[in-house]
Amino acid sequence: MAEQKKLAIIATKGTLDFAYPPLILATTAAALDYEVTIFWTFYGLQVVKKERDLKISPLGNPAMPMPIPMPVLVQSLPGMEAMATVMMKQKMASKGVASIDSLLEMAIESDVKMIACQMTVDLFDFKHSELIDGLEFAGAARFFEIAQDADITLFI
Amino acid sequence: MADSTLDAKGLNCPLPILRAKKALKGMSNGQVLAIEATDPGSAKDFESFCVQTGNELIKASESNGVFYYEIKKKG
Q1: CATH code for position B25
Q2: A131: Cα within 13 Å, side-chain hemisphere
Q3: What is the dihedral of CA A127, A133, A137, A141, to 10 degrees?
């Protein structure tokens, strides 16, 4: 049997929309029999919190399709972010797109290895107990140990 | 005749692939999994899935927006 392929991902973003690419790619690669590692750093750590509350914001994102045209000033009003988040989640559910919770669960089930950046944990005063179980805590040198052996490396 | 069937209708990328992988895991080598899906991207994705995993795509068809696949587990 050919040697198992390896994928290493650095996940840096913590909004609802950008939580998807690392998890979709990681679960799919695992289904293709890759050995997968995700290195969660900076805002990416929000995705692996036990109590995660990921949001999406139309602000600063002119590419986001809006149901009705909306001036930027209106988008900045209180409650708009919460509304955009609720609408996005409803849209995703109606289109059969998996939730972040279930993708994360599937990633764990398929043995995707996850590393949390210890520097970011310190920077944001997170406690290890606030993050999901099974994470390894390490730094950049650990990532390179994995990446030098990977067939594919992605920065998201 | 398929040994097992998977209803992936209404599911979007990457769920049909993930569900298929899970279903195949519980099957024996040489058995056939039948899949129904509505994700138009699944046509190329199941081809790629089989090329990369060594399972055999023995049937792929479409009728009224429903895609039908049969995958024979490798071995």
Answers
A1: 3.30.110.40
A2: 25
A3: -150
Query: Which 20-49 residues of chain A touch chain B by CB within 8 A?
Result: 24, 27-28, 31-33
Its domain, for residue B41, covers 4-72
Which chain A residue lies closest to B51 (C-alpha atoms)?
A32
Task: Write the pLDDT tens digit of every residue in A27-81.
Answer: 999 999 999 999 999 999 999 999 999 999 888 888 888 888 888 888 888 999 9
Q: B74 is written with which tokens? A: 């490798």
- Domain count across chain A: 1
The answer to whether A95 faces chain B, any CB pair under 8 Å, is yes
Complex-level ipTM: 0.87
Q: Write down the residue that tokens 């994705």 correspond to.
A: B45
Query: Which neighbouring-strand residues pair with A114?
Result: A38
